[in-house]
Structure formats: C-alpha cells, structure tokens
Amino acid sequence: MITRQILEFIHEELELDIYRDEVREIISKLNSENDFTVDIDCGEYRFIHEDVIWDIYVEEIKMITEDCYDIKAPHWLAIDWEETARNCFVDGYGHTFSHYDGIEQECVFGEENYYIFKTNLSRWKTGRTYSMKK
Known about the structure:
The protein is α+β, with helices and mostly antiparallel strands. The protein has five helices and four strands; from the N terminus they run ααββαααββ. It has helices at 2-13, 20-30, 53-69, 81-88, 94-97; strands at 35-40, 43-49, 104-109, 112-120. A hairpin with a 2-residue loop joins strand 3 and strand 4 (112-120). Helix 1 (2-13) crosses helix 2 and helix 3 (53-69) crosses helix 4. It starts with a helix and ends in a 14-residue tail after the last strand. Residues 123-134 have low confidence and may be disordered.
C-alpha cells in the first residue's frame, strides 16, 4: 500500500517519473528516518515527518538568523527562538525548506504524515526514459 501511495504522490502531485530503486529508497527511509533527502527524477526532495517538523523549523530559523545577522550575543543571553520562528511562519514551511521553489506539499504514507520539499535540481536531465519495470 505504501508503494502505491508513493507512486501516486510522485506521479500525480509532483508530476515526476521514478525508478523502482528510488521507491525502495524512500520506503526504507520512511521506515527509519524522520527527516531525509532523496533524488527523484533529477531533483532533490526533502521529506520531514509532521512530528518533528516544527523543532527542525525552529533550528533552521535560528541558523538562518544567526548566519544572516551575525548575532554576537553572549552565551548567557536567552533568545526566544520559538517566538522568532512563530514570527517567521507567515506562509508555512515552504520558504524555509524548499530553496528551489518555496512550495510545501503534504502526503500521508501508511498512517504517517510527511511534508515534502523540492530543495534543488540535483543533476541535469539526461534524456533517459524512466520506467517502473525493473
């Protein structure tokens, strides 16, 4: 059933082609990781489980803020990163996690809800034909 859900999501929602090996990799990671990246049809996609996405988002906002604004606060100064993240959460997770196009998508695999983000174009399309027959 999960295989069918993955295939339907990738074909219908992402409008991509996929190899069986890529499906197997996604299934393996869905069973063992809450935050992972896979290559699908020449693009890189990040999958984040709904149970951990907010904590990952807060950490990402903290890193972006510290990198962009070169915050040199003493270590004992407490910054409310949860509140900062809430202030930044205007249009959802897409602008932070999807560096490619800013889009977030949700999908249920089995009984687990994941957010999926395109993070980049990982390699040039080679003109090869994709097939589910392997």
